[in-house]
Amino acid sequence: MTHVTTHILDATAGTPAAGVDVTLHSADGTPRGSGRTDADGRLALGPDVLEPGDYALTFATGDHFAAQGVAAFHPSVTIAFTVADRPHYHVPLLLSPFAYTTYRGS
Description:
six-stranded mixed sheet
């Protein structure tokens, strides 16, 4: 079974980013799942099985920072990735008001 998890770390606060809305969609824009990060900034989403192909996670980062009264450059962050034959994909997001980074996690 191929599934996707994510977590967000707010690098400016040094804490998990809780309560961030995240949407998983396929390359053609079809929504495949959505949810909100938990108190630890983590979320599992989408169907239990994703077919091989291209997908993207979109994070509502602007809302996260606005709730803290912090101006942010990116109103949202979209991370595109390719699903092959692995059983699990972990796509973390390291976030600040003016920059972000990601990597293929384990």
